Amino acid sequence: MVRSLSQWTKTLSFPARISPNRNSKDCNVNVLPITPPPAPPRNKSTTSTSTSSTMSSSSSPSSSSSSPTPPPNVPITEISQIIYPDPESEKAIMGSLVFCIHHKQGCKWSDELRKLKAHLNTCKHDAIQCPNKCGSQIPRVMMTDHLAFTCILRRAICEFCNVEFTGIGLEEHAGTCSSEPIYCESKCGTRVLRGRMSIHRAKDCAKRLRRCPHCAREFSADTLAVHGATCPRSPVPCPQRCDAGPFARADLDAHLRDECKALTVPCTFKEAGCRFKGPRHLLEAHLETNTSAHLSLMVALSGRQGQQINMLKSAMAKLSTNYTGTLLWKISDWSVKMQEAKTKDGLELVSPPFYTSQYGYKLQASMFLNGNGPGEGTHVSVYIKVLPGEYDALLKWPFSHSVTFTLFEQGTLGSGGGGQGGVAESFVPDPSWENFQRPSTEPDALGFGFPRFVSHELLNRRPFVRDDTVFLRVKVDPSKIVAV
Prior knowledge:
By secondary structure, the chain is α+β, with helices and mostly antiparallel strands. The chain has helices at 5-10, 44-59, 61-65, 76-83, 87-94, 116-120, 140-150, 167-173, 197-204, 221-228, 252-258, 280-289, 291-320, 334-343, 456-461; strands at residues 97-99, 110-112, 127-129, 137-139, 155-157, 164-166, 181-183, 191-193, 209-211, 218-220, 235-236, 247-248, 264-266, 277-279, 326-331, 349-350, 354-355, 362-368, 379-387, 403-413, 420-427, 448-455, 470-476. It is elongated, with a radius of gyration of 65 Å.
């Protein structure tokens, strides 16, 4: 780009080492535009005086710096004459050492001022007009990149469709080229040409939605096969290869259970011991021809089940047996049982058996509601008897523990608030009594106790019966339990 002299001088930079000596080649030069001195008078004396004044003035730095600016619209040739009023000044200024006006951009050139113009014509940092006439001023060093990438009037070919565009046209074309490969919008991971994306999504995309032909639910194409293996409405053949079918997968179990004639089934008396196993259509004939054998098997099964029931009852009885040495006996429906005892002679109620300890004596209480012996018809009689136990061979005989019977009053406290009120009777067994010797397999029918434990009159007068229920406690003294 061609520059005028005034444009050069506005951006010049001089080294700091330049000497202020005017006669030196490296003198400090003021390059600001100056105006010529006023025209001297035409007479001779005045001319010489003015000339000397002018020379004096030009030799003085202060007068130079205070010179007026040139008039506007002055031609370049005349401005150079104004800047350099004499050859010595021109030589000094043009010989000054200067840096390139682009030294801040990285240009390292420095030389005499007179060589600056020629340098700027080749300086790689100097801006020139784009040869494509896009209107941009680009440094020479950046012109190649500008012409290749940023010039809006450059000619460029799309790398995908090979169509030529201008720079601005290529920018508009980018992102819309139908030949550019892009990733599928459904995120299946496939790269497809932009122009074929709609066809890919409709026919080839693994993430496109497809409807199951059996249950009408929608799945992505890559999971439809997995669904088909478990779809409840998918038709499947009978695994027994019978003549019926195919069936919906959800109905197959019902077909095998109820209808399939080819399915191998066991005899309905399998639990009784019948070992027949064959196709369902032969089962009916088997049942008709083996009726007596099946009956025998059922009888044997019934016997085995009876034994098992007895074993379970025995196990349940052991689990529910009391091993604390204290029995709290709850007698319900008291009025009905009392009325029945008065009408039936010798009616006896017996309690659940209990043990004095884990491996102790086995005992059982009994009660005659209408009395027994001396208390018959007037009193309630209570007794205790020793039953054959599992550990009798290890126990000390005769039985010698003290036993206490207590009939509780319900809903009241004893005198002084010291506990539940009631009637209590106790005894210590005599070693000579037959009732407390080691029992045989058949226990004593009566045992030992109190025929006149509580009278009917006292039973009705005090609150022993409430809600038609009576509570009797039988307690064995633990201090006299014989340890095994």
